[in-house]
Structures are given as structure tokens and as C-alpha cells.
From TrEMBL:
Species name: Menidia menidia
Compartment list: Membrane
Location of the Thyroglobulin type-1 domain: 56-134
Protein name: (Atlantic silverside) hypothetical protein
PROSITE patterns xref list: THYROGLOBULIN_1_1, THYROGLOBULIN_1_2
Source species taxonomy: Eukaryota, Metazoa, Chordata, Craniata, Vertebrata
UniProt keywords, alphabetically: Disulfide bond, Glycoprotein, Membrane, Signal, Transmembrane, Transmembrane helix
Length: 304
């Protein structure tokens, strides 16, 4: 047989396989019916239909994870780019999604306790009761990915790193490469800091979706059907990642208060407060001694 025909047939077979039976961008999906549709189970056992030609919106992924967690099936396991940047300390909840997969601005996790989220579904306000108002969904326009790679045998060429990361993000997540802005590299700490940033006001690209797939790729297992690793290659060397931290910067600063400060900062504040209290106590003590001394002196002088 002609080799071109074989390749064409193979491509056709892959094409039909993709259109029914397999969802490349979501390994937990099932596909059936005529016309064939792919879906994941969410909520109390409802089917949520997916468009498997694209990455799945994070809100849908979290709903699917919560469903699996309830069923006991497996799920998830440099510094700030900006003064208003924050990380997701809350972890997973069962989100309310719009039909197109965007997060609703207000989330309650099926409880009486609610909070407002950004377009990445990460909490950006204090928690309140069900009367809490979230006017709108605030967009995350800048994400900093702090990647730590495993030790390598050869030195990593920093100048080639930018392109390597950009290519991997482009090919793996079908993501616009020009949104990958700056990369900083610390060879000692094996830290690669990648800024992914779009124009404020841009609503065409969803940074959170790509970041979530990457978080899963590095911290747990890929969400893709294909379980290949996220492994940018610099020259002939593959860089395997061992950790990722994601910072979010929203178009408007979050409105957390003190009690949401990270433990480290709270500890510092406590130490400072204790030091001030100790200082005041010493002052009072010294003042008392001085007064006693003055009185004693006075008494001694009285008879004269
Ligand atoms: C899935 O997404 C692609 C690309 O955005 C679009 O062309 C296609 O019409 C969508 N399919 C369905 C079934 O909505
Ligand atoms: C949401 O609720 C689930 C239990 O249904 C709980 O395990 C999870 O920690 C909650 N998430 C948040 C962010 O409150």
C-alpha cells in the first residue's frame, strides 16, 4: 500500500477516535450517544457536556473534582509579582459556574458562608454570609508561575530557557506564546519565574485555565488523556518540574483583611506587639522606681 494512504487512513482513524470515545483535554470524561458528546459527572450526578477541542474551563474542572472527591475517586492532591498578588490558600470547593464555564462572582460551596472570587475562582474577599454582595467577576490579568525544576546534570542555559518554556506552553496548552512575558531564573534554587500577562480589559484569553492545567501537570497528574509530562526541553536536556506556586494579580486589588494574612506575617506582628508591651512594662517599672527614689530623697531632706 502507498505510504501516503496509510498515513491518511491512520489520521482518519485518529480523527474519528477523537470525535467519539476520547476527550483529549479531560481524562475523566466519557463520550457516547449519537451525535457523540463528551461529559463529566458533577453535582448530584448530572452530566456536564464539554467541548473537548479546547482546554476545559477551570470552574468545570473543579466541579468534576468535587464530584470525584465526594465519590472517593482520585483528584488533586521568587516572591510576589505585585503588591496585590495572592495565592490560593483555600483549595478546592464546589463552584457555581456560568453556562460558558466562567466562575460566578459569588461562591458559597453549598454552605451559608460565601465569598467573592476572581476569574480564576480564587477567593479575593473575606468570607461573609449569604447576603454578601459581589458586584462583578474581577478578571485575573497577570499570573506568575514559580516553577522549581529537578536537579539536572548539565547547566541550564538561561537564554534558551525563555523559548523552551514558551514552546512547551504553546504546544501543550495551545496558548498564545506572546502572553508569556518575562522569565527569571535562579540556578541555585532551581527556580524559574514565568510571568503570563494580558492587557487589562482583555476577555479573550483565560489565564486561569492554562495555569490550572499546569498546576495539575506538576503537582498531581495531567488532566489530559495523554499522560505525557510537562517537560520543557532546553537543548537536549529535559527539565522535569517538582513544584509550582501560582500568584494571581487581578485588575482590582483584593480586599482581604488582617485575619487572612499568612501565618508568617501574623507571627511577626505578634512578636512586635509583645516587644512593645515589654517596653511599656519596663518604662512603668522604671518610673515607679524613680518615684520611690524621689520620695525617699524627699523624706531624707525633710528634717533639714
Ligand atoms: C468547540 O470549540 C471550537 C473552538 O473554539 C468551536 O469551533 C466549536 O464549534 C466548538 N464545538 C461545540 C460543539 O461547541
Ligand atoms: C467546600 O466544602 C467541602 C465539603 O463539601 C470541603 O471539603 C471543602 O474544604 C470546602 N472548601 C472551601 C474552600 O471552603
Amino acid at each position: 500500500m502507498n505510504i501516503v494512504v496509510v498515513i491518511t487512513l491512520a489520521a482518519f482513524a485518529v480523527g474519528t477516535a477523537l470525535s467519539c470515545g476520547v476527550c483529549p483535554t479531560m481524562k475523566w470524561a466519557n463520550c457516547d450517544g449519537n451525535p457523540c458528546k463528551c461529559y463529566v459527572m458533577v453535582g448530584q450526578g448530572e452530566k456536564l457536556f464539554l467541548n473537548c477541542t479546547n482546554l476545559i474551563p477551570k470552574c468545570f474542572l473543579m466541579k468534576a473534582e468535587m464530584y470525584r472527591a465526594r465519590k472517593g475517586e482520585s483528584t488533586r492532591s521568587g516572591g510576589k509579582p505585585h503588591e496585590t498578588a495572592f495565592v490560593d490558600n483555600d483549595g478546592i470547593y464546589d463552584p457555581d459556574c456560568e453556562n460558558d464555564g466562567k466562575f460566578r462572582a459569588k461562591q458559597c460551596n453549598n454552605t451559608e458562608e460565601c465569598w467573592c472570587v476572581n476569574s480564576a475562582g480564587v477567593r479575593r474577599t473575606d468570607k461573609g454570609d449569604t447576603n454578601l454582595k459581589c458586584d462583578k467577576l474581577v478578571e485575573t490579568y497577570w499570573i506568575r508561575l514559580q516553577l522549581k525544576h529537578k536537579p539536572t546534570t548539565d547547566k541550564v542555559d538561561e537564554t534558551k530557557l525563555i523559548n523552551a518554556i514558551g514552546n512547551e506552553i504553546k504546544s501543550r496548552y495551545n496558548f498564545e506564546k506572546n502572553l508569556v512575558k518575562a522569565i527569571k531564573y535562579d540556578p541555585e534554587a532551581r527556580l524559574i519565574e514565568v510571568d503570563v500577562k494580558k492587557e487589562m480589559g482583555n476577555r479573550d484569553t483565560d489565564l486561569a485555565q492554562m495555569a490550572y492545567y499546569m498546576e495539575k501537570d506538576i503537582k498531581a497528574l495531567p488532566l489530559f488523556k495523554n499522560q505525557n509530562k510537562f517537560e520543557p526541553s532546553v537543548e537536549s536536556q529535559k527539565l522535569e518540574m517538582e513544584n509550582i506556586l501560582v500568584y494571581y494579580v487581578d485588575e482590582e486589588a483584593p480586599t482581604f483583611t488582617m485575619r487572612n494574612l499568612p501565618a508568617g506575617i501574623i507571627a511577626t506582628i505578634v512578636v512586635v506587639v509583645l516587644a512593645v508591651v515589654a517596653g511599656i512594662l519596663i518604662l512603668i517599672f522604671m518610673k515607679k522606681r524613680q518615684m520611690k527614689y524621689n520620695k525617699a530623697q524627699q523624706r531624707e531632706m525633710d528634717p533639714m
